[in-house]
Design a protein that fits this description.
Elements: H1 2-31, E1 37-39, H2 46-55, E2 60-65, H3 72-83, E3 87-95, E4 107-115
Antiparallel strand pairs: 1-2, 2-4, 3-4
Length: 116
């Protein structure tokens, strides 16, 4: 009986701790408080650097966003605007390293700008 009481207490305590974060995320989604934005693409590996040098330059963009509050179409629209006219963004990858994106927008999508 005592173990069941302790586990119920632990569940309630974790819910109590998570409540402020959940409330913040809900408010952010409703108020458009965490808009996605362009950031620095991740560093290239050595083989990627060679390929970029051969193709004539690094034409990549990256977008920081919150996956809970931002749609994929909105991220793609920011990448399209960042790539510029005459190019189309193609997804290269996504990471959650927090090196260039803040804690509440931890996802970074990277796109290659390809001539259309």
């Amino acid at each position: 009986m005592r173990a069941r009481h302790a586990s119920a207490f632990a569940i309630m305590r974790s819910l109590h701790s998570a409540a402020p974060l959940l409330l913040l995320l809900a408010l952010a989604q409703c108020s458009n408080f965490l808009p996605p934005y362009e950031t620095v693409p991740p560093p290239l590996t050595l083989p990627e650097q060679r390929a970029v040098t051969a193709s004539g330059g690094d034409n990549r963009v990256a977008v920081c966003y919150n996956a809970l509050t931002t749609t994929a179409s909105r991220v793609l629209a920011i990448a399209s605007a960042s790539c510029g006219p005459g190019t189309v963004p193609h997804a290269l990858g996504r990471d959650f390293q927090l090196s260039n994106c803040p804690l509440l927008q931890p996802a970074r999508a990277t796109f290659a700008c390809v001539k259309s």
